[in-house]
Structure formats: structure tokens, C-alpha cells
Amino acid sequence: MAAWALLELIALFTNLFYFQKWSFVDRDPWQAFPASERWWQTATQHWWLALMPVAGGLIVGVIARYLSPRVRGHGMPEAVETIVFGKGRVQPRVAVLKPLATAVSIGSGGPFGAEGPVIITGGAIGSVVGQLLPLTDSERTVLMVAGASAGMAATFNCPMSATLLAVEILLFEWRPRSLVPVAIACVTAGAVRRLLLGPGSIFHMAETGAPIYHSAMLGALVLGLVAAFVAAGLSKAIHWIEEKFEHLPFHWMWYPAIGGLGVGIGGLIFPKSLGVGYSVIQQLIDGNAMWQLLVGILIVKSAIWVFSLGSNTAGGILAPLLMIGGALGAALGHFMPYGMPTGAWALIGMTSVLSAAIGAPLTSAMLALEMTHNGGLMLPVLLSCVGAYAVSVLVQPRSMLTENLSRRGFHLSREYGVDPLETMLVAQAMHTSVFALPVTATRKDALHWLEAMEERGAAGWSHWQRVFPLVDGEGKLRGMLTRGKMIQVAGAAREDGKLLTLPLIEDAALEPKTVSPVDTLRSCAEAMAESKLTAYPVVSGEGKLVGVMTIEDVLKGRSEAAHKDIDRERVIRLRWPFTKQHEPAVDVPASPDETGAEA
Predict the structure, then answer these.
(1) CATH architecture of the region 421-559
(2) What is the pTM of this model?
(3) At what angle do helices 556-566 and 521-531 cross, to 10 degrees?
(4) Is 536:527 a contact under the CB 8 Å cutoff?
(5) Which pLDDT tens digit goes with each residue over 290-338?
(6) Whether 465 contacts 585, CB under 8 Å
């Protein structure tokens, strides 16, 4: 419902800014420009149209300064920041002000999409619901991600892609507790969207039934590689513009208006660069794009989008990336092998640029299927998306979504894997050579230990053992003393000889916290973090002491994982026929004299 309301608001503000009508009819800003005039004629006779994005930018700046600065930006980085660092807590006002500011920005001609703002709006709704209920931070974060993903599912009619977007970008985990609610929310959003906006696909495309030849697959891979460099260039240009805006000698409230001036000038030159541009993307898929349209998108659309987004106004990035990628694919398609259906290269270019820009190849590939309902192009689309993603991680360390966060000190890895602490048991890392005391030990034994340590000096005090278990005749743990406690009771016994016969069990913790040898290092680390203890006795199921686990031992899991990535070895060696094999070396036994000398 929020996505439907935002699309209606965009249509309303587009009609107000460019047609001076109170109407919810879906129109594009470029339809207000005379089609028969050259751009210089439009610039001289209809110059006032260039002021519409400026007015929209002023309104966005006022909303951001006096109501909520969270309305700035394209939504997805803000969502990631809130999910990872903000415990899923979003101000309720963002759920109202973000779509309002976005509708003003896009309706006044901003070259953005509605997807990013709908994502943060849906996330804000989920966060508000989570704040109204007694939930944990993790549960509240899952609700926020569910709302954000549902927003994308509603905008593009893509529940599967939205679920994958959560997995690849938003969730930062793979657990049933998070995946199930997100998937249900996306399906629900897709079902309700059918009632509000219709069941059809966003873009219409004839279904591909003919086989895709290998030459076309190779062309898709090449297109993906080119798309990766285009996406990297756009990302660097956006952040370069952002840095320039930050050095302007006045308040950031005016930045969106300055960005709107660039949009207005670009709109006079190439009117179809204004607005969301779904109709222009449809034209690319239909194969009706002339070179003037392709050049206009690749140059003017890219320039005004980078400039306005660098001003930190409100608007999304998905639709502009799809348009720029579609123009790139349509342009390069003229040099690609023949045999591909109409609009195929545009679709491949759209999704590959998106994949490289946001770092989500599976989301982008599935989006192509759900936007067009054309599954026949899945092979070249997936190959292009994965190729673009592979190159993008080499040419830019951060995606377009996380670059801003990293510049503010929030470093997020785009790689996920099994926690190495989850793959190793306590039995594999614990110390088994432990100095344990019998349960009958006295303070005299503690004093003997202290004197021995003092004789050894620094070498003795650097020993790993910090806890001293007390065990009975069967080897079962009955108590435990820390090294500090041992020093304390030994010092007291040294000063007062009457204390030498007191049993140590009276000074020990009788129910110490323990871990099992079959526990994982992760569970052991969590226990240490919760109790603030850095050493645990390891006790078997029968209650017998089998070792001691320290915080240094926990790090062995990380060390093993590091060696897996560093150490190289050849496990199998090939032996070719008709070649002389080297005989293994044979150890010659030493003579009795040599043996005696060695002994």
C-alpha cells in the first residue's frame, strides 16, 4: 500500500509541476516539452521548465533540514546502516516524510526511481511495528528487512528478487528466523500489488523460445565485463560529486536545489532523461531506440543522475541504473552476434549494470525474469550478471551501496561464509596438559606452587594456565581457583603458618562454569563474552576434567581458517606413463657406533 501511495504521489506532483493539473494520471515530465522543437529552441522559449527540478530540490532541502535529514539519499545505504548499526530503529516520521520528499523530487523531474525510497519506507514501517511490540533487536531488524523487501516486491512486482535482495544485501545472515518472515512479506506485497496496480509485468517482452547460441553467450559475458567498468565509473563519479558538494560554502539544505539546476539544464537538452523513465526503458526493450536516444541516455541521463544524486537529494538508483544499462546493452548489441530476440541485449545490459553497481548478481538476474516474464534469456542474463559482479569486486572494493558507509567508518564486507569457530570443537583446541590439584590439597600446596613460580621467574609467570581445578580420586571436577586466588591464599599461609593446613576447597568456587568437549568454539566464545571469564574447565559428560579452555585457544579456529586461505599444497600428483618415476628415498639404518653416538 505504501508503494502504491508513493507511485500515486509521484504522478500527482508530476502533473502539478509540469502540467499544472491536480491529477493522478501517470505521465512523464518529458511529455510537457514540445516534441517538434530543437533543444536550443526549447531552452529559449520554455526555459521555465528548467526551474521545476530546482523548486523540487528546494522543497526537499526544507523537509530535510527542518523535519528529518533521513529523507536525503537514495534509501538503500540508509537501510543497510540502520539494519547493521542502528538495531533496526527508524523514526516513525521517516515512513511519511521519505515518500513525500521522493515524490516531490521525482515529480519535479528528478532522474530517479521510486524503488530505493519505497525500500526505506517499507523498512521504516516494519521498524515502527517492531518498536511498538516487545521484541529483541534481532527480531526488530528482521521486521525492518521484511518491510524493506516487501517495498521492492511491490514496486517491481518481483517477490523472488526482493527476497534475494534481502539475502544478498540487507539481512547479513542466513537463518530461518529471518528468511521465512522476509519471504512471506514479499509474497504478501506481491499479492496485494496485484489488486492495486495489476498483475502484469513491469515491462512487456515477447517470450524467448528459440535456443541461445554459444556466440551470444560469449557476447553476454563481454557485455557484463563492460557493464562492470561503467558501474564503477558511475559510482566513483557520484562520490566525487558528493565530495565537491561538501566543500561548498553554504548549508547542505541548498544542495538539492543546485542538483535540481543541473537536472533542469539536462532536461532542456534531452527531456527523456527526466523522471523515472519506465516508458523509455520499455522503448529500449521494444528495440525502437535510435542512436539519439541511446547517446542521450548514456551521456545526459548519466550526467544529471550523477550530479543530482551527488547533491544528496531524495531518489532511488535502481531505475536509473536499469535505463543506463539498457542503453549500454542496446548500443553494444549492434556489434554483438545476431540471433538474439528483440530487446535481449538491452535487458542483459540493464541487469548486468545493476549487478555490478549494487553487488547483487542473483537479485539482478531474477529481476530480469520477473520484470519481463521472459525466462528464455536466463542463461545469458545470469552469465552477464555474474561476470559483471566478478569484475566489479576487483575494480572497486565497495559497492555503490556501501561506499558512503565505509567513508564514514562503517566497514561492511560483501563476503559471507561459515563461522570458523562453528567448525571446530572444544576438544580440538583445549589444553590437555593441565596442572590440577587433588581435592584434598591444602594451602601448603598452594605455597609450594607459589615458591616454585617465584624461582622460575618471568618464564613461570608467562605460563598459559590461569585457573587451577580441584579433582577427586576419579578425576571429577570439585572446584576451581583462579591464579589470583592461589596467590592470595598462598601469601596468607606464608605470613601465618597456622593456615597451612586449611584445605583449598574452602577457597575454591564449588560450582564453576564449564564447557563440554563437544561444544563448538563459537558457543565457548559466546559463554566467555557473557560471563567475562577468559578460561573455562572442560568437563566430560561424566563430570571428569579433560582439559582447560582459554581465550587464546578460541582463536585457534580463526587461525585454522586463515591457513586454509594461505597454505598451498599439491594433494595429488599425476604420474604420466612412459616416464621414469623417481624412487622414494630409503632410510639407511645407522651403525651401532653411530646409533650410540646419536643416543
Answers:
(1) Roll (3.10)
(2) 0.80
(3) 140
(4) yes
(5) 888 999 999 999 999 999 988 888 877 888 999 999 999 999 998 888 7
(6) no
